[in-house]
């Protein structure tokens, strides 16, 4: 199977990492809209327009499936992308909601949703979780974590101050935290430690693998996946980050 992975920038590589670990695809074609990132501060019409333009890019390839690794795109543009696509388009919000339900089934659980400003504003995770009966939901737009990750500050004072800034006033550790942004899995360890290991963390990459495995037939696994990286600006930078994040030779 040949899959396309779309993200607003480099962050979607965290989803590619999970796809590679589970050897799901023969070929992955990644497109990061690095010229126009971040999407998380843009308005819905812009996010939809950019996403439809990315869809045009993928029409140059015969992909069997398109994954939108970006939570912001998943929250706003899925319906429109599906209308204009010949193949299935899967976002990360529904898989994240299902992964949460599998990991933390109690509807009384205290759930903290983290995302970009746009994702939090969309209420997409709250909608999905609310339909499953979850009621103790809160959300924080932890936007500073995006540039912190892009700077490679996966630990240390800057990250700790940002975590304290966002979580310092929470009355207690949540039962689960949805890492509703491509970048947050890279600081998952620090977030987990901040909550002293008391919170289950939901990672979009793992969630999408769980979702794919239960919705598609993956009897065949691929020891080697062909990877192609494209970006709307500085593709070399994207390939460098891919080497680092994905430990490529
Ligand atoms: N990829 C975005 C997301 O997962 C984060 C970066 C951005 O704002 O574009 O929401």
Topology:
Layout (H helix, E strand, L loop, with lengths): L1 E6 L5 H9 L5 E6 L11 H15 L6 E4 L2 H6 L1 H6 L4 E3 L2 H11 L6 E6 L1 H6 L1 H8 L4 E6 L3 H6 L6 H11 L8 E5 L7 H7 L5 E4 H12 L10 E6 L3 H12 L3
Parallel strand pairs: 1-2, 1-3, 2-9, 3-4, 5-6, 5-7, 7-8
Helix pairs in contact: 1-11, 1-12, 5-7, 5-11
The structure holds D-glutamic acid.
Question: What attributes characterize this protein structure?
Answer:
binds D-glutamic acid, Rossmann fold, 2 domains, five-stranded parallel beta sheet, globular, alpha/beta, four-stranded parallel beta sheet, 249 residues, 9 strands
Strand tally: 9
* SS class: alpha/beta
Question: Are any ligands bound, and if so which?
Answer: D-glutamic acid
Number of domains: 2
Number of helices: 12
Q: What is the average per-residue confidence, as pLDDT, rounded to a whole number? A: 96
Shape: globular
Largest beta sheet: strand ordering: 4-3-1-2-9
Give the low-confidence spans. none
Largest sheet: 5 strands, parallel
Please give a structural write-up:
The chain has 249 residues and is α/β, with parallel strands linked by helices. The protein has two domains: 2-91 and 207-245, 3-Layer(aba) Sandwich (Rossmann fold); 93-203, Rossmann fold, CATH 3.40.50.1860. The protein is built from twelve helices and nine strands. The strands form two sheets. It has a five-stranded parallel sheet, with helices on both faces. Strands 6-5-7-8 form a four-stranded parallel sheet. α1 packs across α12, α5 crosses α7 and α5 (93-103) packs across α11. The longest helix is centred in the first third of the chain and has 15 residues, at 44-58. Bound molecules: D-glutamic acid (DGL). D-glutamic acid is lined by residues 7-9, 11, 37-40, 70-72, 116, 119, 146, 181-183.
């Amino acid at each position: 199977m040949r899959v396309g992975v779309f993200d607003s920038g480099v962050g979607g590589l965290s989803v590619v990492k999970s796809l590679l670990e589970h050897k799901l695809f023969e070929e992955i074609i990644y497109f990061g809209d690095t010229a126009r990132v971040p999407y998380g501060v843009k308005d819905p019409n812009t996010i939809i327009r950019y996403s439809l333009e990315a869809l045009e890019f993928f029409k140059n390839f015969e992909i069997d499936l398109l994954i939108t690794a970006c939570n912001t795109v998943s929250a706003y543009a899925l319906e429109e992308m599906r209308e204009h696509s010949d193949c299935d388009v899967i976002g990360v919000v529904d898989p994240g909601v299902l992964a949460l339900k599998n990991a933390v089934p109690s509807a009384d659980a205290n759930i903290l949703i983290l995302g970009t400003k746009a994702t939090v504003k969309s209420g997409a995770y709250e909608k999905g979780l609310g339909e499953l009966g979850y009621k103790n939901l809160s959300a924080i737009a932890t936007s500073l974590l995006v540039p912190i990750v892009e700077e490679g500050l996966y630990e240390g004072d800057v990250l700790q101050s940002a975590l304290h800034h966002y979580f310092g006033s929470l009355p207690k550790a949540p039962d689960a935290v949805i890492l509703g942004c491509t970048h947050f899995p890279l600081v998952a360890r620090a977030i987990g430690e901040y909550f002293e290991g008391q919170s289950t963390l939901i990672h979009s990459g793992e969630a999408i693998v769980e979702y794919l495995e239960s919705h598609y037939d993956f009897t065949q696994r691929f020891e080697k996946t062909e990877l192609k990286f494209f970006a709307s600006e500085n593709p070399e930078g994207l390939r460098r980050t891919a080497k680092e994040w994905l430990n490529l030779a």
